Amino acid sequence: MTEAVAKLKNIDVAPRKMRKVAGLIRGLTVNEALAQLEMLDLRGTEPLRKLVYSAVANAKNGKLDEAKLYVKELYVDKGLMLKRYLPRAQGRATPLQKKRSHVVLVLAEKSGETKDRFVFHRTGRKIKSSAGTEKKVKEKAKAPVREMEAKPKEEKSGETPSRRRIFRRKAI
Length: 172
What we know:
Elements: E1 3-11, H1 15-25, H2 30-39, H3 45-61, E2 69-78, E3 82-87, E4 93-98, E5 101-109, E6 126-128, E7 134-136, H4 161-165
Antiparallel strand pairs: 1-5, 2-5, 3-4, 6-7
Helix pairs in contact: 2-3
């Protein structure tokens, strides 16, 4: 077995929106794909990220090398559609179509030596390096947050609070 397959059916994201995300990670290594998905702020990224992790787990069960995996195929098909109606004026109704997607992800091993542009690690997990040793990934320490000091506003000479309100909208 040189491939690992993971499927996701009837996810509540329209296929057009899911294809937008899928096109960005197609052909990338697993680490690069996960890093891309972590940085994107689109609706389909979270289900796809979980699907990649599922496919990696399937690959481990199939005795594939995790370091050499890449996204061989990723396609999005139309799933079931919920049909609802929205009430409108004068007794009319507008149809609503709540679209869903089916996603199929195929991971495969690259035959040659692979070098990632960057490495993505989930924090707090043991990671196997190419040498076969395990190491625990530490979480980054957060930088201390500075509190803003409240500075009192200096009043301009000759201005009273009621004088300043005259030039505001909704003045008294």
